[in-house]
Amino acid sequence: MSVEFIGNDEKIKSELLTVNMGPQHPATHGVLRVEIKTDSEIVAEAIPHIGYLHRCMEKHCENADYRAIVPFVDRMDYLASMNMELGYAITIEKLASIAVPRRAEVIRVLVSELQRIASHLVAFGTYGIDIGAFTPFLYAFDQREKIISFFESISGGRLLYNYISIGGVSRDVSNDLIVGLEKFCAGFEDQLKMYDTLLTQNKIFIERTANVGVMDKDYCYDYGITGPVLRGAGVEWDLRKKKPYSIYNEFNFEVAVGKGLKGCVGDCWDRYYVRMVEMEQSVKIIKQALVKLREEGGEFTTKVPRVIKVPVGEIYMRTECPKGELGYHIISDGKKGPYRFKVKSPCFTNVSALGEIAPGMMIADLVATIGSLDIVLGEVDR
Amino acid sequence: MTTQTDGQLTVKKYFTNIWDAVSSISKGMAITMGYVLKEKEVTLQYPEEKETLPKGTRMRLYNDVDDCIGCKACATACPVGCITIATEKRAVDAPEKKSSKGTAIKFDLTQYTIDKALCCFCGNCTTVCPTECLFHTTEFEYSTYNVQDLKIDYLSDEARSWKEKALKDRL
Ligand code: SF4
Ligand code: SF4
Fold first, then answer.
1. Alpha helices, DSSP H only, in chain A?
2. Do B57 and A362 touch (CB under 8 A)?
3. Percentage of chain A modeled with pLDDT above 90
4. How far is it, in rounded angstroms, from Cα B103 to Cα A285?
């Protein structure tokens, strides 16, 4: 980095100013604190500090039995609870060799794609606010509300669902709700077009995000970055496609990658754009899932004993969550709860990459970069 | 990696930039104005207007204590341990009592409390209940001034008086 921060002028003494951004700051999306050393408007150093939302999730899970863990994993990424549950459920099912009925698999894909849209809508809306556009946020939440009310009708919760249980799902999806979702899908495609005009193609938005916070392919590999941030760097890596879990191999969709349409590959605009295209693809998956749900009947859960018997063993499973790859590492010693419960969080790796690209940026660009990483602190700290 | 500006700024480019900004903003404003004129308002004036929650929404728990067999399955399943149950074995010569599902009730409840301040509304307790006497209702307005008041004693007369309303919310 060839930026000279402190002037050599001996008559004027100058030093870097330390500014704390967060933990209570609207642009840090939760309780992230970034300690910034600034030289006027320019960031000389940015150190992300985490741990403000640490709730000992892993330890809690080690003290609960396998069924009672589901409400805990819900609370990690509270914007994408369904995806958290799905990852946990398929991990335990693999370890304990529990077969899941087909209808449950279809419902699982359906809800996790809906949740992906809901999560990306929050990312889209709040990113608009970070950049200075408030209106898209309202439209995004209007649509998200529809998804949330659907979840409310099937699971009973608005944010923390406890819906995907080990062995299936906890309630069936009725035909009325399927009709409602079909209507939602049709309306949502128009909405996506509207978002495109409203924010994606907005000149000011492009100027603020294109060529800003560039993370190229090698940088992403070095830090182990996954999810939309990695795809934004032009890498076609999506676990749903590359290592299909559940029944994702039966669905027809494309993986969104950043192409550097407005600036260079891997800038904030690309990361944002990947999310927009992913929403489009999710609608495609949802439509296919709805057809399957209509045509196929069957059970929505298998009978599992009240206390699930998990053999002694160790497993690591990863799934593609809206924010990246989420992995569960579970060691079982044959008791009613896990011996060790470790979560590999995508947001944690993504936020750790912030420190290296920050030097030399404007403070406002740092805000844009943090927003484009789309982190949820509940999952970073756990 | 600092911000890069692409290419040289020419006079033509300068004016194209301005034009792009103005036109893209006005396109956005057109959408917003469309919303202002067409769409109905979505805000609910809460205490006056209320949303009807779908059946099965996980709000305050209700236990139909006359149906409860005192098996304590709910207390075991609860991840936070907020259900307290105390039972007494029924005398051998006591009249036979059955739950609505036909299970013989062998224990009399002496205490059944749920600390709603601790409860995380996960619903694990309701899924394991063999007689389905424990379930969530759609009642959500029960805030109190004292946190101790959130400990609900389901054997009390007050809790029993919710029965009629609660049964409507049963799935
Ligand atoms: S809803 Fe969950 S936390 Fe509340 S009493 Fe039931 S099991 Fe416990
Ligand atoms: S599980 Fe149901 S029947 Fe058993 S103690 Fe709890 S409320 Fe009563």
1. 57-62, 70-74, 81-96, 102-131, 135-155, 175-195, 203-209, 217-223, 228-232, 239-242, 268-295, 346-352, 354-357, 363-373, 377-381
2. no
3. 10
4. 45
Counting the structural domains of chain A, the total is 1
ipTM of the complex: 0.81
- A30 inside domain: no
Give me the residue spans of the domains in chain B. 1-42, 61-168
| Ligand in closest contact with the CA of B112 | 2
Question: Burial, B37: exposed, middle or buried (Cβ in 10 Å; 0-12, 13-18, 19+)?
Answer: exposed
Asked if the model's pLDDT at residue A1 lies above 50, the reply is: no
Q: At residue A2, does pLDDT exceed 60? A: no
DSSP A26: G
Residue B170 and residue B55: Cα distance in Å, rounded? 8
Contact A201 B53 (CB under 8 A): no
Residue A96 placed within a domain? yes
- Kindly report the CATH number assigned to the domain that includes residue A203: 1.10.645.10
For residue B61 and ligand 2, the question of a CB distance below 6 A is answered with no
Query: Cβ separation of B2 and A157 shorter than 8 Å?
Result: no
* Structural Rg of chain B based on CA atoms: 29
Contacts of A263 in chain B (CB under 8 A): 4, 6
Options 3.90.1200.10, 3.90.1310.10, 2.40.180.10, 3.30.70.3270; CATH for B61-168 is: 3.30.70.3270
The pTM of this model reads 0.87
B129 in contact with ligand 1, CB cutoff 6 A: no
Q: Write out the two tokens for B171.
A: 């799935």
Averaged pLDDT for residues B115-128: 88
